[in-house]
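Here is a complete protein record:
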Amino acid sequence: MTKIRFDQLYQWINEQSDLIANNAVFDPVKHFEDEGVLFYQHALQVDVLDVSPCVVVNADLVVESEITYQFDCGLLVVNGNLTCKTFDFPFDTIISGDLNAEAVDVNSGCDCRLLIGGDINAQSVVERGHCIEVYGVINAPVVNSMTNVITASGRRYPVSGGD
């Protein structure tokens, strides 16, 4: 792991695929210069991942327990696949590969997005006020769009209107 400055983050972002280059943005940079960005160059497997405020994994990421955060904002970029038990990170997340989880259940008050370059493989995918855009397919028996938008391969999932 290396701690990098935000200007280094944006230089790296601009060198990536369109999915990352066009969507990875962290607006409140001036408030978090001291924290910087935690940058992992190689595959990472951890019990808990703390995204405070920005984490980039330039490879596959496996989170055994949970993804946590300390601030009211955050950015997670995975240039590979993300595997976790439950994905409920409420801030902007860009995953260039697949998201593999037992459950995806996100709510950001309609402020943030989850962008997946590959597929979502899960038992359930629920958005409760979060934009989910999947370039591949959603392989899940339960997909519920409660408030905002879920799209996969151009297909828009209708809002189901309640729990």
